[in-house]
Amino acid sequence: MSAVPAGEFLIEEPARPAASSKLSWKLAVGGSIVAAFIVLAIFAPEIAPSRPLAINPLDSLLAPGAGGHLLGTDDLGRDELSRLIYATRIDLPIAAAAAFLSAVLGTLLGALAGFAGRWADMVILRIADLVQAFPIYILLIALVFALGRGAQSFLVAYIVVDWVVYARLVRGEILRVRGLDYVSAARAAGLRSGRVLFVHVLPNSIGQSVIYVMSDIVFAILALAAFSFLGVGISPPAAEWGAMTAEGQQFLGVAWWLTVCPGAVIALVALGLSLIGDGLQDRMRR
Amino acid sequence: MSGRPVLVVEDLSVSLARGSHPVTPVQHVSLTVDEGEAIGLVGESGCGKSLTLRAIAGLLPRGGTMTGRLRLGLDGGEPEAYEPAKRRGRGIAMIFQEPMTALNPTMRAGDLIAEPMRVRGIGRVAARRRAVELMAQVGIPDAARRARAWPHEFSGGLRQRVMIAAALATEPRLLLCDEPTTALDAIVQDQILELIAEQKRERNLSVVFVTHDLAVVAQISERIAVMYAGQIVETGATAEILSTPGHPYTEALLRSAPSFEQRAGRLSGIPGHPPDPHAFPAGCRFADRCEYAQPDCRTRDPKLTPLAHGRFGEGHRSACLHAELVGAAETEAHA
After folding, report:
1. pLDDT(A8) > 80
2. What is the rounded average pLDDT of the residues A254-265?
3. Which end of chain B is flanked by fewer CB atoms within 10 Å, N or C?
4. B30 closest CA partner among B310, B270, B303, B286
5. What angle do CA B59, B61, B63 make, to 5 degrees?
6. Residue A80, SS3?
């Protein structure tokens, strides 16, 4: 701040300091948890002690720690820890893709509704009303049953139901931002409306959606788990946290770890993502 | 001053569709701005002054429509009719009131200023360099470094300077100012006014300056147009309007502004409220609040006409049926 002329800085209130680059503890902890799971997913073959599908009937239902199996084995003698690690490769990408693609579709449609004018607005809002008229899980289940088992149909069903949330969030924000002076200024400078939308309106309208993506990934993991639990999600024998919880349930009396461990893993991922969302929210409010 | 018109507004009316009841908050406004001239458009909030400005800039809100003729004479030519929405960014630039919301918070100051140049096909490096030059020209210290700063890192006055730099980036001939100093404290306001005046002189800009503050207008504009209830009620040279108002509303406005001469007395407000644009009264719209009101004021529509009375100078026009009464008592007392 050298060479300050004419006392300008003495008179005006001091400029706000640049947002501190220090991470909040929420972002740090949440980010570490999620990063750890991403590492697990990428390096699953290197990290997992054994192969997730290796059946070994002699080692059936070993307790945690027994026979070198840190988290025990399931009824087919498969190593629980390895299965949990490999499941990260299925749950995380599918859930993240479901939330992210919903966010992209919802943001585009919400932007169209808020920016393009009355006709588009009405059509998009009516479709959104239609989707939201059904209870979310009922609609999801109906769609997955109609589309058939598997990751793809889960993705499609999830996006069909979920874009509505983002569309409403973004549309509301756009209606607010559209009237601000910097949007008028951009139009006054002769920018095309596409550029005004994508450079000046949208970046200032998606903050809430970015935060919601975090909660949405959690919701997608739970939904995928629920579908696998119901038998319409990921096909066995692939390891998936929800399916593992479901399979373990029948041995709850003799092998509690088969249910508790995948449940705890889901809770841990959810915690990490929620902390990130919370930390982002704090950061935006400042 | 060449006296060559840059902007000619003829019979401009602006309507807004508000549900089933369209309103017309701006009615039959005519205005001429010469090259290198600043004209102050003064009035209370809701009188239609900002809407007039937005109509000229092609920035009417949704549901807004305008009638009348707008003509623009840039580069020494005769004023020609123009389509405001298609004219944006070419010859006309606008600056806004709120320093908090007038800069896109997701763009660095330098990029914000460079953007209008970039979309005109100027290369990235050249636009950046020009943006830093402009920032220095509008008095932002350490411009090269500050071009990389975000809007929230600037104070209110500096933000206003960034906005002015962005407006100048389009090389305008006509600068429209929508209360750009209202949200600033008095000293910063003064600095920003000085900056606009300086840029106007250097670039020979024509300026339309909208404000509710007569003191601001006195500082920056050669001529004043006073608006009331959607119409221009008085126009003339700034000095003359401030000293010898020819319309009761202008006189009341002047009396309600603080000044050093009459610091002992109480400030007088204007009794009553401006009329609702849904139901403008017949006759003179100011009649209900006017101390000079005569019976015919409520039946005859006053027109903006040159003032014949000897006290008033040339080019001074007022829309008052009884302009000779305005300020007459004071003049006699002095005599």
Report:
1. no
2. 84
3. C
4. B303
5. 130
6. helix
* CATH code for the domain of A164: 1.10.3720.10
User: What CATH superfamily is the domain B5-221?
Assistant: P-loop containing nucleotide triphosphate hydrolases (3.40.50.300)
Q: Residue A79 has what DSSP assignment?
A: B
Enter the pTM of the model. Answer: 0.78
Predicted ipTM > 0.85: no
Q: How many CB atoms lie within 10 A of CB A231?
A: 11
B139 and chain A in contact, CB less than 8 A: yes
State how far the alpha carbon of A256 is from the alpha carbons of A54, A248, B167, B240, in Å.
Answer: 21, 8, 69, 93
Specify burial of residue A105 (Cβ count, 10 A radius: 0-12, 13-18, 19+).
middle
In a domain, A150, yes or no: yes
Cα B13 to Cα B55: distance, rounded to the nearest angstrom: 9
In a domain, A17, yes or no: no
Give the tokens for residue A7: 């006392």
pLDDT digits over B282-312, tens only? 888 888 888 888 888 888 888 888 887 677 8
Q: Is residue A24 part of a domain?
A: no
Test A182 with B119 for CB contact under 8 angstroms. no
d(CA A27, CA A282) in angstroms, rounded, equals: 10
Q: Which residues of A touch B106 (CB under 8 A)?
A: 203-204
- What the block records as the tokens of A271 is 């915690």
Decide if A77 contacts A134 (C-beta within 8 A). Answer: no
Contact B161, B152 (CB under 8 A): no
Q: Residue A167's domain spans which residues?
A: 34-43+79-285
Which residues of chain B have a CB within 8 Å of the CB of A210? none
Within a domain: residue A248? yes
Residues of chain A found within 8 Å of residue B155, distances taken between Cβ atoms: 9, 12-15
Instruction: Using CA coordinates, name the residue in chain B closest to A4.
Output: B141
* Tokens of residue B78, six digits: 């005769």
